[in-house]
């Protein structure tokens, strides 16, 4: 075992504080990673505050991880100590079922093992995430960080990036596609950059008029303020795809009206009970309402390579680990442009004697 440190919450109403724990010894197919940066996803906040009523405490979140390999197990051929790598929301799956064999490990029929708030499928121990100094991950679930990607800014690609990339790719978004992104936060701003990078015409649907200039600078072609009923009406039947990143329960009907014939409303944000929808809105124009969860490992690597090639990086605000409680509060007020990323050197400075000890 190796001693590890991180920041965890002990309950839904308690702040994140320093937490000492142990990472497992390396299995033959494991990679040990010294964490350099970790993004702060709204899901981290949902989990820590028990919004989904399934949180295992202590809750140590973080699934947008960038780091450097420190050791590998005896069967690992793809990675070497010193290599820059990344880990997203998945750390294991059955690797045998149809979704796993089809590169969609996130939909594993036997449930994937998530980076935090899961139980390890071999030893049953709770998984603890990236708000920590190091992590041990099965090699299949480790991504290579391409040389062209700035490690300080790349971390949000591992969740915000792949969660928006997967539905864009599934719907074959490209030149000629008309895409709307609802909610300009961590996910939304990546949705804008990626859809624009794929050549689509991009509209931002926002509750925040103050974000208009940013949206255009990120690559959107226009902005629609969702409270402006006249503007929403004028946009009826405009889009092939609405990518909905709104983190709370909300009425999707105003967005369904914006879809063209065969249009798709993809929910990646709220996991909650939504107000009812008259199915006529779907039936009449063969519109679809779909959900989407992160993405598979191969498509995450595809995304990293695409971003390196196109020089697409998240907009980030780097914070210290010790600032996490304030960062959560700011995230709740949509006061982040557009993703917090924790510089893990701050954690190592707080505990200078707590060097990670990885046994191979
Ligand atoms: P975020 O950075 O907080 O951004 C959410 C954005 O939604 C806000 O910036 C705001 O944009 C808009 N918004 C917030 N409250 C709203 C409200 N009450 N009504 C309408 N719009 C509102 O969050 P995030 O990290 O992007 O995550 C968004 C959601 O996706 C979270 O619920 C998270 O758990 C979920 N998520 C899902 C997956 C998946 O696999 N499906 C993966 C990652 C995250 P405007 O100011 O532009 O309106
Ligand atoms: Zn996330
Ligand atoms: Zn599986």
Major sheet description: 7 strands, mixed
Strand content: 25-35%
CA-based gyration radius? 20 Å
Quick one: how many beta strands?
A: 17
CATH C-level category of the largest domain: Alpha Beta
**CATH level-4 homologous superfamily of the largest domain:** Medium-chain alcohol dehydrogenases, catalytic domain
Q: Provide the structure class.
A: alpha/beta
User: What is the CATH topology descriptor of the largest domain?
Assistant: Quinone Oxidoreductase, Chain A, domain 1
Separation, N- and C-terminal Cα atoms: 10 Å
Mean pLDDT: 96
The residue fraction in helices comes out at 10-25%
> Which stretches are low in confidence, meaning pLDDT under 50 for 5 or more residues running?
none
**Total domain units:** 2
Q: Can you write the helix and strand succession as a string?
A: EEEHEEEHEEEHHEHEHEHEHEHEHEHEH
Tally the helices. 12
Shape: globular
Q: Could you say which small molecules are bound to this protein?
A: NADP nicotinamide-adenine-dinucleotide phosphate, zinc ion
CATH architecture of the largest domain: Alpha-Beta Complex
């Amino acid at each position: 075992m190796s001693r590890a440190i991180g920041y965890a919450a002990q309950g839904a109403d308690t702040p994140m504080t320093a937490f000492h724990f142990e990472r497992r010894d390396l299995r033959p197919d494991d990679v040990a990673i010294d964490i350099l940066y970790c993004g702060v996803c709204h899901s981290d906040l949902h989990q820590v505050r028990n919004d989904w009523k399934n949180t295992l405490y202590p809750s140590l979140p973080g699934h947008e991880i960038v780091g450097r390999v420190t050791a590998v197990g005896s069967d690992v051929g793809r990675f070497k100590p010193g290599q820059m790598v990344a880990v997203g929301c998945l750390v294991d799956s059955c690797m045998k079922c149809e979704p796993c064999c089809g590169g969609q490990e996130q939909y594993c029929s036997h449930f994937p093992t998530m980076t935090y708030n899961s139980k390890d499928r071999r030893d049953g121990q709770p998984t603890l995430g990236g708000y920590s100094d190091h992590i041990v991950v099965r090699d299949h679930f480790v991504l290579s960080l391409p040389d062209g990607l700035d490690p300080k800014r790349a971390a949000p690609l591992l969740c915000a990036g792949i969660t928006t990339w997967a539905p864009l790719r599934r719907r074959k978004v490209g030149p000629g596609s008309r895409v709307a992104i609802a909610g300009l936060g961590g996910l939304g701003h990546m949705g804008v950059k990626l859809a624009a990078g794929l050549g689509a015409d991009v509209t931002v649907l926002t509750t925040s008029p103050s974000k208009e200039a940013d949206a255009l600078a990120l690559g959107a072609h226009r902005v629609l303020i969702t409270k402006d009923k006249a503007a929403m009406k004028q946009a009826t039947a405009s889009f092939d795809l609405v990518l909905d990143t709104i983190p709370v329960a909300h009425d999707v009907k105003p967005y369904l009206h914006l879809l063209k014939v065969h249009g798709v409303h993809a929910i990646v944000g709220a996991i909650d009970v939504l107000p009812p929808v008259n199915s006529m809105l779907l039936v009449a124009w063969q519109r679809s309402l779909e959900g989407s969860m992160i993405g598979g490992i191969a498509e995450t690597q595809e995304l990293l390579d695409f971003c390196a090639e196109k020089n697409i990086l998240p907009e980030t605000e780097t914070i210290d680990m010790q600032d996490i409680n304030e960062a959560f509060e700011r995230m709740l007020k949509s006061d982040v442009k557009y993703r917090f990323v924790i510089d893990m050197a701050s954690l190592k400075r707080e505990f200078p004697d707590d060097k990670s000890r990885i046994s191979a």
